[in-house]
């Protein structure tokens, strides 16, 4: 990627910044003075809402003058500005809507203040004279980690080396090599590690592109072994199909092939049925899958060595890691002592929750995983208690038709169905999401979607077990077969509860240091931000030839990569990057 030039000189930059800073207050004045429903008022307010907050954000994050870039840059920036404006508008309106205090004036004042702040903030590109500017999507490394060594091959096709610099190789890694040289007969072009939805989608797209590859893994292993029996998919069936270049392999096609009722958005999908769908998809689309485990991946001359549990160590020019979420299960620090004694665990460690029958179980979390696990525990005759930091447990509203069934939409508004505009916006803009400042990307990934339970779960969960809201876990003291949890309520008062086990439904956080199948030297060579690998637009990491997809790519491309519906976006981009590398 070409390094961005310095921002506009002050005499040309300040008029734009002042105009953006004043735009919101102009819209507010129009709202207060012009007649309701008038064309001038509507035009002024709509122009402000659709353009100005987003342009202020892009000006702050990407200060490059438009005249110094081509028309594609202008179109991309305009699209990103509109997308950001819509996202900021939702963020500004949602607190008023939830508190039932919404008015147009309050929403415009909030957006005007945000726009003024973004317009007047100094840009990240404001540097000391002589400092070398960097691309906005090159996130800084986490403290304590080292950036990837420079190599003879750029991370992206248009990234030149700086004049006067010499590529270096980090200790413990292979020397720099040409990108994707012509593979000899004793190796493959790509090794795909993982056979979940993202691994299968990537493999069948590469296969359709006639790329020589090998695929390793157990089909749908994470879904089979790390999700509780009796679980239902929260995503709409239309958003649960594994992507493939060929038609006829969606969830509805699977049900038709098995002689079952049509799979539309009026019905829920049980976990067992979805695992069977994944196996059926693999048998038809990725028949060459090798059901073996990968023990270690290390850099080698001409590519990567992939050590299998059979002892074989094939050579691959590129490796695609689609290892799913299991390696990144997050447990709060306060539970470490309890975890070591078997008194605390993550929800991803249990398939059969009937082992907790008769026990007191504290379930930490307020999202779908926590509420559904608590419901399954209650139905298994355990005694669950949900402990949530949020002020209230929220369930999604039922579809607008009010019949309790999902609305019939050919494509859902978001992976979780209609009614989530912010999730829909970031899910449909994966390429633009990557251009956001890295701290904003991480914040959106943490907060979108908000913790909630599916609408169909409310009847089974509401009033069935205790729910402690507004509680913060301070510490967990293991005892003789029990755990004492010290909590603080919303007013700061302490509260203790004693349970037999703590079940953490605290989600997953990408941390490459926990991915043991990567050789330590290879892990150290990766450039990371907040534990996640920094990826280019083709899902390639800072180590040429090493690609990440699925949850590990979500910090770069957004919440879309946390859902199965993201398999199409990821597989198409990754395949295009691999095949482009082969042609060079």
What does this structure look like?
The chain has 584 residues and is of the alpha/beta class. Helix content is 34%, strand content 13%. It has 17 helices and 16 strands. The protein has helices at 10-33, 39-61, 71-98, 104-120, 197-208, 221-225, 251-257, 271-285, 336-340, 368-379, 421-427, 430-433, 438-447, 458-461, 520-525, 554-557, 567-583; strands at 188-193, 213-216, 294-300, 303-308, 315-321, 344-346, 360-364, 383-387, 467-468, 472-478, 483-488, 494-499, 501-504, 528-529, 532-533, 546-548. Strands 1, 2, 3, 4, 5 and 16 form a 6-stranded mixed β-sheet that branches. It has a 5-stranded parallel β-sheet with strand order 6-13-7-8-9. The protein has a 3-stranded antiparallel β-sheet with strand order 10-11-12, with no helix packed on it. Helix 1 (10-33) runs antiparallel to helix 4 (104-120) and helix 5 (197-208) packs parallel to helix 8. It is globular, with a radius of gyration of 25 Å.
Q: Would you kindly provide a brief summary of this structure?
A:
The protein is an alpha/beta fold and 584 residues long. The protein has helices at 10-33, 39-61, 71-98, 104-120, 197-208, 221-225, 251-257, 271-285, 336-340, 368-379, 421-427, 430-433, 438-447, 458-461, 520-525, 554-557, 567-583, and strands spanning 188-193, 213-216, 294-300, 303-308, 315-321, 344-346, 360-364, 383-387, 467-468, 472-478, 483-488, 494-499, 501-504, 528-529, 532-533, 546-548. Strand 1 (188-193), helix 5 (197-208) and strand 2 (213-216) form a beta-alpha-beta unit.
């Amino acid at each position: 990627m070409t390094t961005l030039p310095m921002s506009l000189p002050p005499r040309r930059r300040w008029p734009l910044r002042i105009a953006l800073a004043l735009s919101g207050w102009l819209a507010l004045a129009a709202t207060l003075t012009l007649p309701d429903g008038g064309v001038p008022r509507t035009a002024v307010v709509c122009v402000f809402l659709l353009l100005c907050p987003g342009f202020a954000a892009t000006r702050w994050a990407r200060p490059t003058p438009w005249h110094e870039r081509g028309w594609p840059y202008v179109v991309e920036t305009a699209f990103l500005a509109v997308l950001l404006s819509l996202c900021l508008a939702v963020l500004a309106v949602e607190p008023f809507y939830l508190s039932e205090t919404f008015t147009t004036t309050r929403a415009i004042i909030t957006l005007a203040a945000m726009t003024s702040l973004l317009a007047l903030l100094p840009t990240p590109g404001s540097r000391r004279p002589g400092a070398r500017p960097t691309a906005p999507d090159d996130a800084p490394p986490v403290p304590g980690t080292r950036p990837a060594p420079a190599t003879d091959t750029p991370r992206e096709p248009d990234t030149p080396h700086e004049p006067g610099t010499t590529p270096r190789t980090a200790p413990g890694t292979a020397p720099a090599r040409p990108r994707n040289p012509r593979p000899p007969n004793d190796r493959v072009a790509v090794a795909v590690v993982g056979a979940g939805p993202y691994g299968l989608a990537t493999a069948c797209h590469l296969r359709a592109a006639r790329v020589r590859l090998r695929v390793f893994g157990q089909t749908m292993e994470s879904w089979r072994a790390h999700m509780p029996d009796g679980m239902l998919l929260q995503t709409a069936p239309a958003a649960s199909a594994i992507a493939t270049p060929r038609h006829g392999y969606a969830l509805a096609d699977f049900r038709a092939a098995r002689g079952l009722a049509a799979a539309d958005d009026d019905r829920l999908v049980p976990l067992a049925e979805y695992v069977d769908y994944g196996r059926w998809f693999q048998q038809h689309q990725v028949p060459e899958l090798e059901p073996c485990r990968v023990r270690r991946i290390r850099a080698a001359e001409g590519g990567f060595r992939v050590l299998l549990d059979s002892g074989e160590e094939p050579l691959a020019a590129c490796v695609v890691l689609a290892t799913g979420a299991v390696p990144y299960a997050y447990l709060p620090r306060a539970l470490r002592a309890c975890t070591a004694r078997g008194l605390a665990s993550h929800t991803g460690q249990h398939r059969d929750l009937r082992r907790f029958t008769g026990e007191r179980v504290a379930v930490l979390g307020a999202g779908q995983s926590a509420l559904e696990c608590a419901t399954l525990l209650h139905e298994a005759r355990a005694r669950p208690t949900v402990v949530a930091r949020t002020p209230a447990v929220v369930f999604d509203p039922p579809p607008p038709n009010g019949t309790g069934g999902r609305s019939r939409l050919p494509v859902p508004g978001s992976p979780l169905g209609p009614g989530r505009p912010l999730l829909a916006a970031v899910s449909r803009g994966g390429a633009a999401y990557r251009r956001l400042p890295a701290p904003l990307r991480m914040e959106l990934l943490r907060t979108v979607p908000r913790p909630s339970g599916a609408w169909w779960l409310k009847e089974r969960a509401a009033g069935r077990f205790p729910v402690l809201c507004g509680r913060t876990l301070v510490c967990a003291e293991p005892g003789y077969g029990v755990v004492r949890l010290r909590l603080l309520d919303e007013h700061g008062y302490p509260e203790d509860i004693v349970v037999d086990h703590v079940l953490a439904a605290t989600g997953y956080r990408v941390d490459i240091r926990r991915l043991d199948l990567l050789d330590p030297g290879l892990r150290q060579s990766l450039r990371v931000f907040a534990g996640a690998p920094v990826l280019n637009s083709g899902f390639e990491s800072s180590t040429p030839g090493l690609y990440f997809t699925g949850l590990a790519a979500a910090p770069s491309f957004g919440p879309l990569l946390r859902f199965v519906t993201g398999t199409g976006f990821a597989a198409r981009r990754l395949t295009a990057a691999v095949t482009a590398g082969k042609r060079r």
